[in-house]
Amino acid sequence: MARTTIKKAKTVEEAISLALEELGIDVESADVEVLGNEDEYSVVKVTEHIADETKISAFLKEIMSYLGVEGDLEFSYPDDETIKIDITGNNISSMIGKRGDVVYAISYLSNIIVNKDKTAFKRVIVDCENYRASKEKKLIDLANSTAARVCKYRRPIQLPPMPAAERRIIHTALQTNRMVETESFGVEPQRCVVIRLRPYTKVI
Questions:
Q1: CA–CA distances in Å: residue 56 to residues 66, 155, 199
Q2: Where are the alpha helices (DSSP H) in 42-196?
């Protein structure tokens, strides 16, 4: 958890300096908030800034230790708003879980940890030995092939039950398809996606 201190001094600069000295950090590693004035003194709140990668690493290593997984974390950055972490190592299947439910849950919690008290959202994707990337490709292929069958036979098709993250991939894969639409039905853990023709669609 990030350390925080509040200091007051005759000037803002002096108050910040006192706070940094107490925390043992430099200004580049701190978030500074000027709280105002109190009895002719400037009051500041200084919080130790913990890098997103440090937060994620601490969380994931705690999970890995609990599950008995020995491995490494590889960070990559697909874009400015995304952090991707691939976990490699021994006994990695326990980090994936049945149908990927564990790795999806870990990703969800990692997003909460990184984005707590932030105004700009940063997406965190946790993968295990490329499981999610491989699964995503298979789901996109399934979505497209099922959409083609829906158009051919002109009837809706219900896919097998999937976790929310996998259903989202199906919806995203077909959102620009002008012939079909998707909708989720049912109650977890049996919730699934139905693919059907869009209303008034003429299939040639």
A1: 16, 45, 45
A2: 52-67, 93-96, 101-115, 131-153, 164-174
